[in-house]
Structures are given as C-alpha cells and as structure tokens.
C-alpha cells in the first residue's frame, strides 16, 4: 500500500457503519443470557473443529463456537489474526511486519516488543478525521456527550466535526508553544471534554501525553512532570466533583515551584466556567479571583485557540512511536511510567471495545472512569472514538446530588452500554434499591465492570437490580500495562458466572504458576497469572527504564509476562481473578503501592518506620492498614493519628486514605532486618491461627503484642 496516501479500508468500515439492520435482528435473538450454572463440558476451551476461513474479521462475535474458531486462529497464527485486526484502522502505510516480539530476558535480544513496526498511521486521524472522510454525515454525529457535575448545567453535545475542529486548533496551540513530535506533555485535567481535546491534540502532532489523575497532590504531579521531562503542562483552572471545587491550576502552581519542575515553560489552562448557567451554584466562586497567573508561562487555552487556524495535518507516526506515558504504582520504588505505542495500542483497544461491548452504530456508551487512569484512555477516548462511537464524559461522582445519579444519567442520555467499577456498585448497593428502581434504565443493554474483583453479591445486584436481569455483566480483567481488556466475556456470546471474567480475549494465552515452586499448573487450578505471548496493546517499556520493566514483569517466570495477580481457572476454562499477589493494594479501584504510603508516613517528623498492608474490605475491595513505629521522643495520640492520615493524603493524593494506623514499638523483622509482611498480612486479615514459622524473627514476642492491639483481631 502506498506510503504517501491514506489507504482507507473501505470494505471494513462500510461494514461497521452499515450493520444497523443486521444488529436489530441480532439483538432480538441475543437475550439467551442466563444466570444458571453453565454446562461445563460444552465450555471446555480445549479444542474446536471449526476454523476461521474468512479473510477479514467478523463484525461481531455471536457465539462461543465463533469465538473458539477465532481464538484458535489468534493463538496459532497471530500474524494473520492481528493483520486482519489492523485492517480495521486506516494507515498511511500498512505494515508488512505484524509481530516481532521476544519475552525471554535470557536471550541475546532480551525482552523486546514490536508490532506493526513498519506501519505508519496517526491515532487522532483514526479517531476523528477518518470517520468524516469515509462518510461526511459523521461530522454531525455526536462524539462526546458531556454530563457535568451539576445535573442542571446545560452543556452541548460535541459532534465529530466540532471535536475535530477543536482538536486541530488546540494542536496548533501546542505547536505555537513549541511542542514537537516526541515531546512529553503532562495533562492534569478534570473530566471534561477539553481533556479529550488535549489528548487527541497531542496524538495529532505526535506529542506523548502523560496524564496525571486530578486527585494527585502537587508533589506527586511534580514527580511525574520531572520523570518524563515535560516542558508543557495542560490543566484547567478548576474541576468540579460532587459539588466540590478542585483547584487544579493552583496545584500545578505549587508543583512548578518545586525545583524538579524548573524546565516547565508553558502552562495551558482550560477554563471551567458555566457558560450560560448563571443559576448553577459555583463551588469555585471564592477561588476564581485568587488564581495565580505567571505572565509568559500561563496561557488561557480558549484565548490561544482564537489565535491559530483550523488547519493541522496529522503527523505521520511510526506504529512503534510512543503515544502516551501513564504512571502506575509499583510494589516498590517510584511510580512506573508505563509506555504505550501507537499502532498496536490502537488496534487492540479498538478491537476489544468493538467486540466486548458489542458496540453497534448509534449506541450511546458510558464509562465512569477518570481520564487519569488507563480505563479513561482506552475506553472513554481511544477505543470508542476509533469505532465512531458516542461516548459519555461524566464529570461527577455516583452519589451526587444523590445515589440515583448514574441511573438518571443513563435515562437522560439513553445510555446503552454502561461500564463502571465494583467499588461504585458496592457503594450504591448499600442504599435502598428504590434509588435504582425509580429510574427506567430501559435503554441499557450491556453492563461492564473493571478495576477490581467483583464479588458475587455485587455482581448479582448489578445484574438483577440495575440491569433488570436483562443485561449481561461484562467483567473485564486487565491492567494499565496491558493497554486493553485481556480476560472478559464477549457480550451475548456465552453464558456468564458471577465474579468470573470468563475467557481470554483473542491472542491472549494465560498460564498459571505455583507461587512457591514456580512450576506451571494445569487447570483447573489456582496460581499466579502469567501471559504466554505478546499482544499488540501491551506496554513496551517503562519510560527510560527498560531494565525495571524487565525486572518487574519478565523475571519471575522467564518467557512469560507476569501480571502480579492471582487467578483461578475452573474446569470450564473460566477465569476468576483472586487479587494482587504483590505489595500493590487495589482500593476502590485505585492501585496503591504500599511502598509509596510507607514513604509518605516515614517523611513525618515523628515516624521512625512503618509497614503498610491490605486487608479484605467488602466495600472498597481492600482496606489500608498502617503499622507505625514512632521515634522515641514522639508520643502516640489521636491527633497524631489524624495528622498521619492527612500527611499521606497530602503527599500522595486525596484518594489515598489509611483506614487503620496502628502504633507499635517495633515490627516483626528477620535477623537480616527484613520486615515479615507475611505475618502482618495474616494479623490484619485476620487469620492468626496459622502464622507459620516465626522463629526466625529477632523478637517473636512482638507478634503477640500486635495481635493483641490490632482492631482487626478484636
Ligand atoms: O489486580 C487487578 C485489578 O486491577 C489491577 C490493575 O489495575 P490498573 O493498572 O489500575 O488498571 C485498572 C483498570 C484496568 C489488576 O492487576 N483488576 C482490574 N480489573 C479487574 C481486576 N481484578 C479483578 N477483576 C477485574 N475485572
């Protein structure tokens, strides 16, 4: 295919855009979803007699047999499968090389992942322009529905045409401020349409965005700005969540006063105002007048957008050029700058979105994640927009102004596909069902779950109360590192079981290992979850730290990607994720490294050392338990306890809240000085009946003391 001209794949796109008629017939027959235990033998994944003989991928996956045929192809002939998947996108040069990957660090090449390596494309073009180029009516189609924090605030829907115009203009603003292909741009934004504009504009000119979640503290933002050497920051004056004002720009001001951010030369500030909504209570009103402004560094985005033109051709990017960096907590050390690239990431997020949620033209799709997390990247922006979907951007929280909010939004925008986190479901489930049942929700067709294990009580409530026992629950397991969904049901293709993410997506081959012997396990079994071969959406590295990437993900089980999660694979091949097996806590859907919390506690003048572990919590998935050893001259007190909680929130972010602070004179340590976390975990679980061998501790008596004092063992 020609390298100078866009090689549109008309056949494929026509198929996507004209499948509405077929869809309606399918929908009427696709209600075979049942909650009953499934017929085990028929779901064994082992073998299938059917094969895939077509030259392109189907528009949807309608049955388990169809899945099996394609799954076999994706595992046995990944080149062919992923070539067909790439054909769903538009390329300036279609790749001749599909897969070129090495997972084994012991080889000469070492861990090295490349997909579509000679392909050339632009992600923004694929998410916006191409829909209009293929079908001019797309410019009038709503791309983003904005649902503001205050439900009465009127905001317009943004069409593909409008979004493209704003993205081009903002891309020109970035260029005006010297941003070039390959430069890193830090984005610290609330959940507003401008956040999508910012990301797509970066993608358009080949700048690498690094989004930092708006809840992170100034020092955490500073750390992330300096780690990737951003010289330009995009933010908003304010954000609104649950009626509360979040002063984002002033946090950036604080961050930029820190020495490590001295290279930042430009801050582009989007304005969060209310347009014609004078009646909306402005929670930020008393702070608006106090906004700091550094001339020559700070610029209003809307004013800058008036100074540039609307012409901005998309940059031609190599498939392996980085698209973005996203920081995630590790079990030790500083947050990891996960690097995702262009061609593989978009191919993967685009295909997973289409199949898993069975997206049909005209559907309204809503994902409640924040743009600061991978779910926001992959399944609010890139996956949906590359499929010409209509995606809802929701600024608020599930409980404001009341606990019916989600379902009111569903009715207001006639949402068909709704994707949220178990933590939100559990918090809403605690209230009377009437807050759900008084809403219609008739538009809903598919319900998704992501971010943490969904316990069966929450699964069943989501299914029966929210979905009126009508909508399948798509429990999607994946990670920041995986780029897109890895283990998941495909809507209406097979039967579901509560709390099971069911089967691996195309191209994903799972393998369990025994934690102690490191030997592979044959299902049915429970063990540590690894992935056997590469898939296009996976992270390529950690930003400027490939060695750590290899250490964290590829050293535990040579030749495999180690997920850090435990998993049970049942007889029928269904997968149930059991949770993290390392020192990362998953609390209310947020990944929190215990090492980061310990570092924050240890910074406090009164603290000598600390150890943080998680315990099971019904609502939040896990609770955070902090053992704290004070310095000799510091006395424990309620005030100090509150102060420590506050300092953790201030150091990391308001979404990180220790549940228990347990003052102790000492921690259980081995003779070599290592804290025995295994014992601390057992104490807080609590499961103190079998603590295992504690004779290697320098002072075994401390264990008894800890048990006695722990509020979890009372
Ligand atoms: O422990 C798993 C849990 O969240 C971790 C990944 O977190 P993060 O990188 O922030 O990405 C979250 C959004 C994809 C995983 O290692 N997790 C995510 N989804 C599920 C899950 N645990 C169980 N079931 C899920 N569906």
Give an account of the 3D structure:
One of its GO terms (biological process) is acetyl-CoA biosynthetic process from acetate. Keywords: ATP-binding, Ligase, Nucleotide-binding. InterPro entries: Ac_CoA_lig, ACAS_N, AMP-bd_C, AMP-bd_C_sf, AMP-binding_CS, AMP-dep_synth/lig_dom, ANL_N_sf. It catalyses: acetate + ATP + CoA = acetyl-CoA + AMP + diphosphate. Belongs to the ATP-dependent AMP-binding enzyme family. The protein has 714 residues and is α/β, with parallel strands linked by helices. It is 31% helix and 20% strand. It has 23 helices and 31 strands. The strands form eight sheets. The chain has an eight-stranded mixed β-sheet, with helices on both faces. Strands 5-4-17-16-18-19-20 form a seven-stranded mixed β-sheet, with helices on both faces. A five-stranded antiparallel β-sheet has the order 22-21-23-25-26. Helix 7 (160-176) packs across helix 8, helix 13 crosses helix 14 and helix 16 packs across helix 18. The longest helix is centred in the N-terminal third of the chain and has 17 residues, at 160-176. The protein is globular, with a radius of gyration of 25 Å. The termini are far apart. The model is unreliable at 1-46 (pLDDT under 50).
Ligands bound, unique: adenosine-5'-monophosphate-propyl ester
Distance between the termini: 70 Å
| Major beta sheet, strand line-up | 12-11-8-6-7-14-15-24
Helical element count? 23
**Rg over C-alpha atoms, rounded to the nearest angstrom:** 25 Å
- Residue share in β-strands: 15-25%
Task: Give a short account of the largest sheet.
Answer: 8 strands, mixed
- The average pLDDT value, as a whole number, equals 90
Structural class: alpha/beta
Count of distinct strands: 31
Amount of helix = 25-40%
Unreliable runs: 1-46
Shape by Cα distribution: globular
Protein name: Acetyl-coenzyme A synthetase
Domain AMP-dependent synthetase/ligase: 141-532
GO cellular component, one term: cytosol
Pfam family, one: ACAS_N
